[in-house]
Structures are given as structure tokens and as C-alpha cells.
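Per reviewer request, we include the raw input and output of the structure prediction for the construct analysed in the revised manuscript.
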Amino acid sequence: MLRDQVSGDAVRLASHDRLPASGTVGAVNEATDDLLHPLLSSRWSPTTFDRSTDVTAAEVESLLEAARWAPSAGNSQPWAFILGCRGEPEHERLVRHLAKSAARWAPTAGLLVANLSHRFVEDTDWDYSEFSVYDLGQAVAHMSFQASSLGLHVRQFRAFDRAGLAAEFEVPQHWEVTTMSAIGHLPRNAAQDAQAKGSRPARHRRSSTEIRWPQASFTERR
């Protein structure tokens, strides 16, 4: 696929908290927080995790349970996850396929997850579900929300060698290693600073007006 030709460092721009290339953006403010569940308004994607705090087996099961109950087209559940907790062989196997940009920070996470979508029916080019990537996104969103409820943080990213990782774990061709997630606790100092300030790092999003159609079409052309 074309995106597989892009270098790992360039693909890091797919990180979900980057500023959009065009369009007006506005800082998330206190008025916005009043409209959101606290777990959503406080969510952000760190690039540093606490190396001394593990993600427990119970927390991993809780994250998988959240993903398992995500909605999907026809209840097809077209997702699977390769999990590696720090100190486990799977963690090291995932780390060795990170691009340079992600290798600088992702290994500090207590848990690395490769997110797989069931793209095709085995031995055919037929869609297993035309919504499989969409459905995987919902499962990962559920997992991220559950992580927040456990005091964990998540950063989703695409800066890794997709083909190499698929070969490493013998992922069949009708499945796609789509994204990865780094999950863990914040370093103690960062967590204390955030709590003391009563806030999280500044984030920017388009306004609710700009994402309503047809205004969104004008925003895109700016």
C-alpha cells in the first residue's frame, strides 16, 4: 500500500494530537470541559511514561474487556490485539519494529499494543467487513477511555514497520496491523505537576461550528 512507502519518521505525523494542516483551530477551554465527561476532557497523549510502574495483568484484562464490548457492523468484531507488557518477550519483539521517532519514547510505556483489523476473508480479496478499520477504531477508543478510568494514559501512533511486525508475529495477509498504542502511567513528577496545575497540556481542536457540515467543507479549503 502507498502509505507503507512512507518512512516511519514521516508517519509519526499521524499521531492523533497533532495540529491539522489547514483550517482554524481553537484551544480547548473550560467552557468545553463543561460539556464533556471528565475522562474525555482530561485525555491527552503523552510521549513519556513512568519506567518504574507496570501495567498490571488486571488492568490489561480490563482494557481488553472494554475493547471487546465495542460496537461493530453486524457484530463482526473485526479486531485483535498483540500485547506486550514491559519485561515480557512480546514487549521487546514489538519494540524492535518501532521507527526511530517512536523508539525514543514508546518503550517507556508499561504496555505496547499492536491493533489489528480483520480486513479480508481468508484466501480472498473480499472485504471481511467494509467497516473493519472503523470498527477497530471504536474498539481502541473504548480501550483508551477505560485506560483513563484506570489512571493510565494512551498514545496511539503509526511510526513502526508494519510489514516487519506482521512477519514477526506471523500475522496472515487477510489481517492488517493497523496502528499501535503505548499505554502506561505518567512519570510521578509530570502527574504531580498536572494535578497541581489542575490542567493538562494545551491542546487544539477545530470548533464545534467548524466540524458541522457544510461549514466543515469551507474550513477544509482554507
